């Protein structure tokens, strides 16, 4: 399964859909992040 993570769209935007640690865990579970 592929999981898409949105990037910042506007300069200074602070929302984060995931952290590098969570992305790493998802990859270990077999997901394509």
Automatic annotation (TrEMBL):
The yes or no answer to whether the keyword NAD is present is: yes
Ordered alphabetically, the record's keywords are:
NAD
Against InterPro entries, the record matches this protein to: AlaDH/PNT_CS1, AlaDH/PNT_N
GO molecular function terms listed in the Swiss-Prot or TrEMBL record: oxidoreductase activity
Q: Which part of the chain is the Alanine dehydrogenase/pyridine nucleotide transhydrogenase N-terminal domain?
A: 4-33
Q: Does the keyword rRNA-binding apply?
A: no
| UniProt cross-references to Pfam families, sorted A to Z | AlaDh_PNT_N (PF05222)
Q: What PROSITE patterns has UniProt attached to this entry? A: ALADH_PNT_1
Protein's recorded name? Alanine dehydrogenase/pyridine nucleotide transhydrogenase N-terminal domain-containing protein
The organism of origin for this protein: marine metagenome
């Amino acid at each position: 399964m592929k999981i898409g993570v949105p990037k910042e769209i506007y300069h200074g935007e602070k929302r984060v859909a995931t952290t590098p640690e969570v992305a790493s865990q998802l990859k270990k579970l077999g997901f394509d992040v």
